[in-house]
Fold this protein.
Amino acid sequence: MSSSASHTQKASPQKKAMFTRFLDSVEYLGNLLPHPITLFAIFCVAILVASGIAGYFDVSVVDPRPEGAKGRAADGMIHVVSLFNAEGLQLIVTNLVKNFTGFAPLGTVLVALLGVAIAEHSGMLSAAMRGLVMGASRRMVTLTVVFAGIISNTASELGYVVLIPLAAMLFHSLGRHPLAGLAAAFAGVSGGYSANLLLGTVDPLLSGITETAAQMIDPEYVVGPEVNWYFMFASTFFITAMGAFVTEKIVEPKLGKYNPEEASEDLSKDKMGKLTDKEKSGLKMAGLAMVAVSALIALTIVPENGVLRNPITGEVAGSPFLKSIVAFIFVFFAIPGFVYGKVVGTMKNDRDVIDAMSKSMSSMGMYIVLVFFAAQFVAFFKWTNFGQVFAVGGADFLQTIGLTGPALFFAFIVMCGFINLMIGSASAQWAVTAPIFVPMLMLVGYAPETIQAAYRIGDSVTNLITPMMSYFGLILAVASRYMKNLGIGTLISTMLPYTICFLVGWSIMFYVWVFVFGIPVGPGAATYYNVGG
């Protein structure tokens, strides 16, 4: 028996004591939850009934906004509005379609995904990822794998389906433990899910939900997709360094030397799929196309007379450029993707481009159905004023117990991480929690952009240890190729050090960024919100 196997057996009593209860609790609670779509439907019904009860008892709170503020009632109170009556039914049926089509994340995500789909189906993203990982030196391979995992989040499925198995094979070919490679890639793809150098589909998805929640307090508040870009850009390098450190100093020593006899199949046929000359040429031409696109975009915003600057102030803040980020995401991936496909032969004409976009849209059926019910829930929550009532009550409670600043945000991050154990979808979780916590923390004095950045930390770090994460089964299947007796508890115990270190380290980075240096989390993003302003 190998040293790693014997180590696993020796450590199993301690592992059982530390992880089994936690795992059993997560699985039990997760199994109690219905499908996210069903969950939103249940929430809609619950909101209707709860609003009827609260309306009957005239539940209300004092409106903290100044007199004359838009939306403030004449009596200075915020009352819960009942939807459990004739007026409520009329409001629901006449706005059902509008709620769905007007839901901010829907259009922005679909448009951004059309561009990413061209780059993905042409093979550009896969080739770029393989070239990045396989071209790394032995000394830099761990850093490169984690980094590649993080930037693969632009097209998240690619990271799970391509990079994680590739990283395990790469480590195996280098004589290192393949599960260490799998863990490093998994940590980047899923643990660093929100970090990235570029804006991806997750940015407009979350910002649309945040904007809707913020408008419960300030109807004119706008949250763009770019509002967390500074912090997430820097987080890419921070998570890369931390993920590589955990892999080499904690996870790999714990796994020990790999014994090929533990594999569940013959691994001698594993091939790394090196880039062909044609793929290299395609990447070079795609890179040139990307530079050309970037230069053209820069001409619209960098010069003082740039056509996409704010026409009134001449500044970048509030400019058409920032309001059109989704359009630029589309162009930035679509053009280089098509150029790559043209060079390598995967895309010959417009029909291939259309097929790529169509395939991408066909895979979004579940998301569109989810959005329909999530949009109704968000609208119901807004109409009833529950969000504002909870926010005022919660803000008063936080001020009463003195929980503000760093302690408040650390508690918020931990809570988001805990909820993520049971609701794996970032959009589903934020659609439920944003209408409560964004207004609440705004009333305490923090801007929605800062609140969203903190949420993204909590939403990312526990992806690694929850079986509710949609790709957890795939990761387990890949891992079992290299260790036939590997169980779900072993995988979670392998990934737990990343979760702990990412949670602590990323939270500290957030504290230093926001509270020590006072750096905005994104272009034009505010850190604090003045309730009376």
Q: What stands out?
A: The first strand starts at residue 60 and ends at 62.
